Amino acid sequence: MNRVVITGITSFLGSHTAKELMQQGCQVTGIIRPASRNKAVVESDPVLQDARIILLDFDSLPDTAAGKEAFLSGCGTVLAQLGEIDTWLHFSWDDGGTKSRTDAALEEKNFSNAIKAFWLAGAAGAKRFVFAGSQAEYGRGSHEKPEPMTEYGKAKMAFGSWAEEHAAGGPMQFVHLRIYSVYGHGDHPKTLITTLIRACLKGEEFSLGPCTQMWNFMEVRDAAAAIALVSLSPKTSRVIYDIAGYENRPLREYVLAVQELCGGGGRLEFGTRSNNAEGAADLIPDVSGLKELGFKERFTFEDGIRSLRETDRKELEDPELVWEPVKVEHLVQDRWIDFRRVRYRFPDGREFSPYYNYSRRDFVVIIARDEEGKFLCVRQYRVGVHKVTCEFPAGGIERTEEAEYTDGSLGGCESVTALAAAKRELLEETGYTSDTWTQLMVEPAEATLSDNFAYIYFADACHRAGEQKLDDTEFLKVDHLTEKELDGIVNAGMFEQAVHVMAWLLYKTRS
Q1: pLDDT of amino acid 334
Q2: Which listed site, 20, 410, 467, 504, has its alpha carbon 20 to 30 Å from 27?
């Protein structure tokens, strides 16, 4: 078991990385300031509650000016609490936003506290010290010649250089992460992505800079997985790793994508505000280090925004309408379904029970048109209505985790996984495949009772690629129907899957 210490465990990225490490079986110790206002991040999270916590204010430790030995001689109590460790991740870096990044005194204190963490890690036997730096260290320079524009970027780069020098030839490996723009659940409410989503959902005016520079965004769960990989992998050999997504776009394209995914609302005003303290430098990360370690992204930018969009919609709801769960009983909880009995508190204070709901797998529905312009439909027996139905090819999105379902809290699975499932289901159920796929919609399948999502796809110019490969429980036949024939079946009420009917009407509207 890898014993990991995290300074800054209550931070946005620190908390997500801690959860990722714990889910990988690491023993995580978090260091938190006694007066931290963010302790609730750990206390309220069912995963982080299992972390070991040490309350410590680095400002209270001996000064570094007297040197390493003098510093450590005054840290006996802290070292006893730490015990033997394997890895130290240093996220802690006081940051009050853009304005504070020009505060030289604050950055000098951050630099000193990072040295304290480095010395403590070495004394506790850590084999690797991982420092959370920033793309701000590059500034308007390059990977070969960084030119940080702020005191924040200069201080982080200076500590990286100091730590690399002091780790050279020693027993503790130093790894410097330069983290690019990470977004996701739990991010600061005033970041670009968070404020932009809310402005678009509310239909408000939103002022931006020119947004002409190249940019890079990474979903926080991917960032946490990348940091965990760099921190634990025996193949980690570089000093500097850029933590960033594999796709770069002009910032304006990202902004417009957010607006579109939020329904087209909001009035975007480009060029009406100045750039932030780091300026308008292009962000082009070097992700070759992550690729060497075999890192793969799980979430596209669109996946991440859909997930945040659903969260923000809930936060924008009228609080007078929200039900609060008081007690949850899991009546059936296996790999296929989580069926629950819930007691809710109504907005007026009254409580109601039982209310039943459940989690099941997300699934795909495929409107497939062959090369002759006919639509592939399947006929099979459905136990719910006790009859043979006509419907589109469809199927569940398989997962690698033990449970086959998601809890819906993050807005469904990633679209890459959904598309792979759609291609698989079409081939297995019909023997056909397609090179042209369009995602039409992602929609809750049954919002009243269930939290799973339906991913609707259109596959055009489908051609035969082989025979059906049906599961042991599948018995179905394939029909090729003209658009007129399919319209007739739907209008006669003989297409007996509500989501499939919605998919057909949506396709008709879009086409």
Answers
A1: 85
A2: 410
